[in-house]
Amino acid sequence: MAAARPFGLFRNINAKIAAIPMVLTALVVFTGGTIWTVVYSFTNSKLLPREQWVGLAQYERLWGTERWNVAIENLLIYGACMVVLSLVVGFVLAALLDQKIRFENTFRTILLYPFALSFIVTGLIWQWLLNPDFGIQSVIRAMGWESFDFDPLYNADIVIYGVLIAGLWQGTGLVMCLMLAGLRGIDQEIWKAARVDGIPMWKTYIFIVIPMMRPVFITTLVIIASGIVRLYDLIVAQTGGGPGIASDVPAKYVYDYMFQGQNLGQGFAASTMMLLAVLVVIIPWAYLEFGGKKRV
C-alpha cells in the first residue's frame, strides 16, 4: 500500500503540471485580491489606496447611507421574487416539455434563446418594451384600451419589478433546461408505479419527483443566487439606477464609489458586504453537497 502512494501522486502528472498556472492565478489574483479588498475596506482610501486606518468607520457610513439601504432592499425584493418565480416557472415549463410534445426542440430553443443574450441587450430590449410612448402600453392603448397603464420603469415604487420582468425573461430558460435534465434522469419505472397506484400526477411531482431532484434544485438555486448578488448590467442598461436611486443595487453602488466617486474605501466596504452575501449562499450549498453524512 505504501508503494502505491507515489504512483497515485504522480498519476496524470502532465495534467497536474498544466493546472499549476490556473491554481496560482486563483490563489494570487482571486484570493489575494479578496484579502486586499477586505483589508483596505478598513482604511480611508480615496482616489488611491492608502494605509490610513479608520476601523469600522466605512461600514458605519455604508449602513447609514440611504442609497445603500435602498440598494439592499431592491436586491432582497428582486432576489426573493427571482428565486421563487424562476424556479416555479422553470419547473412548470420543464414538466410540460417532458411530456414528449411535438416540436420540443423548437420550443426549448426559443425558451433558452434569451439566455444567450447579454444583460445589456436584454435591458435595452425591455427598456423599449416598457417605454410608455412606444412599448406595451402604447400598443394596448392603440387597440382601444385607453385607460391601460403599464410603465413600471418610470414609477419609483415598482421600478424593481420592471427589472424583474427582464431578469425572468432571460434566466428562466436556463432554469427550465436544468429542470428538464433532472426530470429526464427520473427512472420511468417510478412514473409507471405511480400510475398503477392511482397517484395523481401533481402529487407524483410534489411528493416523489421533486424530492428526488434535490441536487438539481440546490445547484440551480446557487446559480440563480450568484446572478442576483452581482446584478449590475441589467440595471445600468434598463434604468441607470433611476428614477433617482429607486432601482439602485449594491454592485452599482460599488462601481459608482470606486470609479466615479473616487472613494475606494467606501467601495471596498460595499464589496466586502457583497462577498459576505456570496458566502452566505456558497457555505450552505457546500455543506449540503459535500458535508454532513456521507451517502452510501
Automatic annotation (TrEMBL):
Keywords: Cell membrane, Membrane, Transmembrane, Transmembrane helix, Transport. SUPFAM superfamilies: MetI-like. It comes from the Bacteria. The chain crosses the membrane at residues 20-42, 75-97, 109-129, 158-183, 204-229, 268-288. It is found in: Cell membrane. Residues 72-287 form the ABC transmembrane type-1 domain. GO terms for cellular component: plasma membrane. Its main location: membrane. It holds the Pfam family BPD_transp_1. One of its GO terms (biological process) is transmembrane transport. It is a multi-pass membrane protein. PANTHER family: ABC TRANSPORTER PERMEASE PROTEIN. Belongs to the binding-protein-dependent transport system permease family. This is Carbohydrate ABC transporter membrane protein 1, CUT1 family. It comes from Vannielia litorea.
